[in-house]
Design brief:
By secondary structure, this protein is α+β, with helices and mostly antiparallel strands. It has one domain (2-97): Alpha-Beta Plaits (2-Layer Sandwich), CATH 3.30.70.100. It has helices at 15-21, 27-35, 61-69, 72-81, and strands at residues 2-9, 39-45, 50-57, 98-99. It has a four-stranded antiparallel beta sheet, with no helix packed on it. A hairpin with a 4-residue loop joins β2 and β3 (50-57). The longest helix has 10 residues, at 72-81.
């Protein structure tokens, strides 16, 4: 499994609503993530909106994102979540996720 970490920035005035939305992620979205190789997926959020995401996948980060891009539910979820994020320009939230380099892992 490859471990993937990424950062995004949630608008500080939307942090509480963002957390509430993630208490009820649509079952169809969860199924699509599992189906396309997203395992052990976690999100961590600071009070100022800095979001760290982590997941494990048997495929590459790009292949996992491409798999989700083909899922019809993903477009709907991304559209509903886009207003929560800063500095994405014309990118959807999933397109604004850039893989962080792993520099240490304790097995």
């Amino acid at each position: 499994m490859k471990r993937i970490g990424f950062l995004l920035k949630v608008r500080p005035d939307r942090v509480e609503e963002y957390k509430a939305r993630h208490k009820a992620v649509w079952p169809e979205m969860q199924a699509a993530l599992r189906r396309t190789g997203w395992h052990n997926y976690s999100l961590y959020l600071r009070e100022d909106g800095l979001l760290f995401g982590y997941f494990e996948t048997p495929i590459s980060f790009n292949a996992a994102r491409e798999g989700m891009a083909k899922e019809p539910i993903n477009a709907e979820w991304q559209a509903s979540m886009a207003p929560f994020f800063e500095a994405l320009g014309d990118l959807r939230p999933d397109e604004g996720m850039f893989e962080l380099e792993e520099v240490f892992h304790l097995d």
